Amino acid sequence: MSAVGSRERPRRGDARLRRAALLAAVGELLAERGPGFSLAEAAGLAGVSTATAYRNFADPGSAIDAFFAELVGDLLEAFDRLPGGGDPLADVRAVCREWVEQASRWGAAAVHIRSPRGVLARRGEEDPFVGGLYERLARLVEAAIASGAVPRQDVRFAVLMWVTIFDERVVVDLTRTLEWSADEAAEHLTGALLRVLGRS
């Protein structure tokens, strides 16, 4: 390996670590007080220079966009990593548990960057996050219907109710205000979802 190649890897690794620290700081600032912060504040919290922050992001808005894109990507990838089985309700429960586990970490930040448009409208507008989320949830609802685990129903409504029940504000209320564990919150929210889907 050349000396240049050996130097490049640590630099790239350091750059990734600095970006990760900046995004963590953005999440922390969003959770504390919403989007009214500067890149200099994010840099200070992350322990990097303001120049480094501006090398990564043009402004606070682009840093917030990157934070949201990362948490969305992590959530959808986590859903995809869950082992699917022959029991569609077990698959639903696994997705619900993962959702609560993740949202309990970033929900307080995400509430400040919510879109005013509805889920179904955004799916129709080809929002990549909503489209990806809808596709995964709809597939699970359809499998539950096909297996007879839940009655036939409008899948669009079922997915809309799923997203509503698992709204990050609800997760934050349960895990932070009521101080429930992620397991306890997931169990109650999953029970509510299954009742909405018609599972007695």
TrEMBL record:
Location of the HTH tetR-type domain: 16-75
Secretion signal, residue range per the UniProt entry: none
Entry keyword set: DNA-binding, Transcription, Transcription regulation
Calcium found in the keyword field: no
DNA-binding region: 38-57
SUPFAM superfamilies registered for this protein in UniProt: Homeodomain-like, Tetracyclin repressor-like, C-terminal domain
Gene source species: Actinoplanes hulinensis
Keyword Transcription regulation: yes
Name of the protein this chain belongs to: TetR/AcrR family transcriptional regulator
